Every structure is written in C-alpha cells, then in structure tokens.
Amino acid sequence: APFNLSEPRPKPLPMEEPPPPRPTGKPPPPQKEGPTKEEQAIEAAREQNRKAIEMKYSDPKDRIRLRTLERPSNKETVRAELEEREAAERAAFEERVKPKRAPKAPTAEVKLNTAAILREDAVYKKKQEQEAQAILKYEQELRDDSEFSAWQEKMLAMDEAEVAAEIERRRKEMAASAAAAVRARERTVEENLEA
C-alpha cells in the first residue's frame, strides 16, 4: 500500500453527570384560627354599607317601586278562560272516545218448520205414554177410584189448557209471520222504487 494509514482511536464515552438535587420549597406560614384582620375589616365595611342602605331606604317614599306590580292585570281572567277551554276540550275528547253502544241484535222470528212440529209431537206422544203407564199402574194396584178420577180430570184439564195455549201460540206466530212478510214485501217495493 502506498500509504500507511493508522486506525482512528475510538472516542471516549461522555461522563454521566449526577442528577441535580430536588428543589425544596419554603414551608407555608402557620395558619391562624378565625378570620384575618383583612377579612374582619372587609366584613365590618360590608355590615356598615348594609346598615347605611337600610337607613337610606327605611322611609317608604324612598323605596323602589315596581311599576309592573301597579299595572292592572287580567291574569285571573286569562287563567279562567284557559281552564274553561281545557275543560271543553277534555269533555269533547271524552265524548269522542266514549265507547259506543252496540246496536241491538235483530229479533229473529221463529218459524215452525217440519222438524219443530215433529219434536213437539214426539213430546206430546211421550206424555200420553207416561199417562197410559200411570193409568195401567193404578189399575194393577187397584187403588181408590176417586183419587184416580180426580187425577185424570186434572190431567185432562191440563192437557186441554196446554193444547189451547199451543193453538193460541201458533196462531200468534202465524199472524206475526204474515205481518213480517207484508212489511218485507213493502220494504222491497220501496227499495225498488227508490232505485
């Protein structure tokens, strides 16, 4: 090599400096009990000012008067009107939400058909059969004839009354059915005329 170069020396590491000492503050002054002289002087001046203001405005002529309190007010009238309006609105709302009565169910007219007549006939025949069995029982037991006669007359009278009531009921039902048919026919004619 044409040049003899020497290797550079390593730089020395910097020395570590010790940390600075922690600062210490002065201790606070000792705290005294109660207010300080300045606070006492401020409170005395405040009390003196309060007394001076009270003395100044102790005369009724010098008192502050609020003109708004002296104005005529219609507050009560407005309040009464508002309450009346709210009551009317509440009553209207309650009337609107009150549940309406359900319409009356139409009274259906009962018409006797063949099945109903057969049922009534079966009931009547069953009753006659019971009476026949009772008569047979009386005859077999040979009871007193007067008691049987009274019972028989009573039963016959009841049967006649029931038959008469049944005839009257059927007559009324037929009359009502005929009247309903006439009304229905008239209503149909009126509806056709209006259409």
What value does the Rg take, in angstroms?
60 Å
Sketch the topology as an H/E string, one letter per element.
HHHHH
**Quaternary structure classification:** single chain
Query: What structural class results from the helix and strand content?
Result: mainly alpha
Biggest sheet statistics: none
Number of helices: 5
Total strand segments: 0
* Arithmetic mean of pLDDT: 82
Residue stretches low in confidence (pLDDT < 50, at least 5 long) are none
Percentage of residues in strands = under 5%
Helix content: 55-70%
Taken from the alpha-carbon principal axes, the silhouette is elongated
How far apart the termini lie comes to 134 Å
Structure description:
The protein has 5 helices and no strands. It is mostly helical. It has a domain at 114-194. It is elongated and about 155 Å long. Residues 1-108 are annotated as: Disordered. Residues 11-32 have a biased composition (Pro residues). Residues 34-97 have a biased composition (Basic and acidic residues).
